[in-house]
Amino acid sequence: MGERDWISRYFAPLVASPGAAALRDDVAELSTPSGPVIATVDALVEGVHFFPDDPVDTIARKLVRANVSDIIAKGARPLEALLTLGWPGTRPEEQLARFAAALGDELSSWGIRLIGGDTTASPQGLFLSLTLTGQSGPGGVIRRSGAQAGDRLWVTGAIGAALLGYRALRDGRVDDPHVAAYREPQLAPLAITGLLRDCATGSMDVSDGLLGDARMLAEASGLSVTVDLDAVPYAGGASTLEERLALASWGDDYQVLFAAPESVTSRILAYAGEEGIKVTQIGSFASGAGLTACMDGARVNLPERLGFEHG
Amino acid sequence: MGERDWISRYFAPLVASPGAAALRDDVAELSTPSGPVIATVDALVEGVHFFPDDPVDTIARKLVRANVSDIIAKGARPLEALLTLGWPGTRPEEQLARFAAALGDELSSWGIRLIGGDTTASPQGLFLSLTLTGQSGPGGVIRRSGAQAGDRLWVTGAIGAALLGYRALRDGRVDDPHVAAYREPQLAPLAITGLLRDCATGSMDVSDGLLGDARMLAEASGLSVTVDLDAVPYAGGASTLEERLALASWGDDYQVLFAAPESVTSRILAYAGEEGIKVTQIGSFASGAGLTACMDGARVNLPERLGFEHG
């Protein structure tokens, strides 16, 4: 089946926006809301970001969530998406149908409109890339660089579920409960954007490992940061230093890491409670530079390489 | 070398736009000009859209031009780009440096700002995807669907150069003059947007073969179209019907195909002459449906499959 047939059969039905001209034109019109529009792009590659035999519907959901994670971490609402799909001839059409259905479902659950894309053959392995736009709040984009000395460090959800799921799949334990978290990361709900707009001075998503990302947030803000390893909400409840560092250095958590003044602590907890968002205070910023991690009240030695980098 | 090192060493220097925060944030701000902003995405895959041993600087230029072609064919000016790069470990860092330099050079030659991207490992083969935004003219986006019965069909540049270059590379004739056109398609200059805004009723870029694309333009406008095969400006000057059909059915021309009323013919020719744009009138639209091709004053039989589809 050729590219044009794929588009009309599986992707055109996902498109509702008039600007997209049902994917029948070369370009799509972006919506132009008031206030800044932001954009991000994230790719997933077979054998790098997912296993070859991961179900394609979970790959579609992971693709969308990896991008949504970037947008909501900035206090912005996801708007419109363009998809690049490199599809190997070895994968049957039935998989493409399942992929497209899951993609459409996941996009609509976040209110995202698919407005364009490019589908192509791929000689080896499936690869995907999604460009996603988002609408910032009236206060503009929440950057990494806004944290202040004295601010507290917060994180949503749990850290390390993707690593536990990855290990399980690698070792053939497909029924492990963390497999779902590796394949379909659980993001903070969209309501996190309200909390961030109201309270956060700086934020980013945790996609390359909690500790390395915390260091990046501090560095962008010209500060030092201390992370309390006893406070971090580990998936699976790690207790040894080695396991805690492993979970806090692996990628694909897709949680939000943010800085907020101590004075808004109770407001954060109240908002999170109302909206059912799990948030945990895990550290604080100070003047200076660098990352310190503590456990049982003592500073721990950190390995040289903290961040997770695919490849 | 890890992903973050690549970005800071090779791609961050390409970024000038303040909204991109030098690629150090998760998202970039799109500019918000007055009038509609459009977007397109095009991917290139090793072994599908380019040969494994094509020089990487030509791959970078082809990637940009494939996207620019979509934008300028709509009468719009290219604005901002986000890059997805799947880089195989087998390609040395020196190639990445050359790729990035050519990409930066090509983007600036069109006035495009690189504002974001994602780089990842690729287990097999290089793949690339570029999302490009553009600013429409005050009259809005020139769609495929605006052609009127009686309009003339025009095309820029020459048709089939990419096929001649592809054949040469396939057969090992690397010194063939058409190889350059396959690797680095020659687009109409940016000034074509002024002509299109002023004169075109419908337009698209020729990327899947002239004849199939002409049929699509007519179909989107609810019309029939006749193409005069004697008038088409073939690269290399084809004279037999078989060769003409081959050149007019192969993809990757990246020329602009547009419809315009007969009354503006002299305006088109005058504008094109002033700006040094090659334009050729190659047919006309009428009521009805379907594509007719003529040669030596007689209708010719067309093969069932006209468009070129990668994969």
Counted by DSSP, the helix tally of chain A is 9
Structural category of chain A is alpha+beta
CATH architecture of the largest domain in chain A: Alpha-Beta Complex
Portion of residues in beta strands of chain A equals 25-35%
The pair of chains with the biggest contact is: A-B, 66 and 66 residues
Oligomerization: homodimer
> Strands of the largest sheet of chain A, in order across it?
7-9-6-10-8-11-12
Number of strands of chain A: 12
Give the CATH superfamily of the largest domain in chain A. Answer: PurM-like C-terminal domain
Question: Which topology of the largest domain in chain A does CATH recognise?
Answer: Phosphoribosyl-aminoimidazole Synthetase, Chain A, domain 2
The main pleated sheet of chain A reads as: 7 strands, mixed
Radius of gyration of chain A: 20 Å
CATH class of the largest domain in chain A: Alpha Beta
Shape, principal axes of CA atoms of chain A: globular
Distance between the termini of chain A: 32 Å
Helical amount of chain A: 25-40%
Report on this structure.
2 copies of one chain form a homodimer. The first copy, chain A, has helices spanning 3-11, 56-72, 93-109, 161-170, 179-183, 192-199, 210-220, 241-247, 265-275; strands spanning 28-30, 37-45, 77-87, 113-121, 127-135, 152-156, 202-206, 224-228, 255-260, 279-286, 290-295, 298-300. Chain A has a 7-stranded mixed beta sheet. Chain A has 311 residues and is an alpha+beta fold. In chain A, helix 3 links the parallel strand 3 (77-87) and strand 4. Chain A is globular. Chains A and B meet through strand 1, strand 2, strand 3, strand 4 and strand 5 of A and strand 1, strand 2, strand 3, strand 4 and strand 5 of B. Chains A, B: One of its GO terms (biological process) is thiamine biosynthetic process. Chains A, B: GO terms for molecular function: ATP binding; magnesium ion binding; thiamine-phosphate kinase activity. Chains A, B: It comes from Hyphomonas jannaschiana VP2. Chains A, B: InterPro entries: PurM-like_C_dom, PurM-like_C_sf, PurM-like_N, PurM-like_N_sf, ThiL-like.
